[in-house]
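Table S4 entry, Methyltransferase domain-containing protein.
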Amino acid sequence: MIANNLFNFSMKNKMLVPFFTKSSNVQNCSYRRKYDLVYMMEKYATSSMDYLQWVNENVNPNKNKNAIEFIDISGLALMKHKEVFSKFQNVYVLDQYFGGMIHFKTAIKNIVSNLKVSLSTKSKLNLPNHSIDIIFSNSSFSLIPEDVRMSFLSEGLRVLKDDGVLYFSNLSAEYYDSIYELLIEYDSRLASGLDWSQFQIVNVDKVHDFFKLIFSEVKVEYFKSDWWITNVDDLIGYLLSEREFDSLKLIISESGLSKFRTFLLNKIKEDGGILIKRRVNLIIGKNKCSLKLAV
């Protein structure tokens, strides 16, 4: 259960990185280049969740393991952290569409210029069984057809070693609640038109139970941070850059961007800023069982 999925497989030396995405095109690229997750965290986080630091220290700490990463291309968060991708030399990008992959390739090459990035729309990985040590994911599969979703997952587990590790992270409902409450305050009538089902909030307990079918050891880590945003253009730019807020963009455009901007500006002047709560759950599965997924 995930949203806008990407499977990205990263590896050190002559290893490849598969990367799957559910995206036929990439919108608002100019916004994405500036107002991404890392930009907002570095500028506005008032309490550190140390999430990216944890990833840098715990995912492939020895810099010699083969890894798979499922990354949400809307944020490109980890791609901005050279510490993560400098551990790898080759990336293989696999997807149904080229749009998101091309954006990924451009973004990551700007960060790690000597990284080899290959693109393919084929459904199978040119990798042997049990060749990957790590899978790291911060997205989900719920918005793609089930047969494709299970095919991707099955292929990822095929190449994961029996003693490999799968990291799965997701945003909690508190994050979306803070955005939704802001919209209700702006105009409750418009808020009712927001397609909240698109966010596909992941039930951590269900994912935990699903992982227990695949791995002999499963645990959950929790990270949190609060953003105190004081610049109206940064907040608008961030909302426009996130694909998960597509229906919110329509609502804003219909009511008028200048009107929404004035509302946010007045709120910042009155309250000193706008609070966005960001909560991340990281589920970790270790030691793969013999379960085979039906595709």
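The beta strands are 9-11, 67-70, 90-94, 116-120, 132-137, 160-171, 215-229, 274-288.
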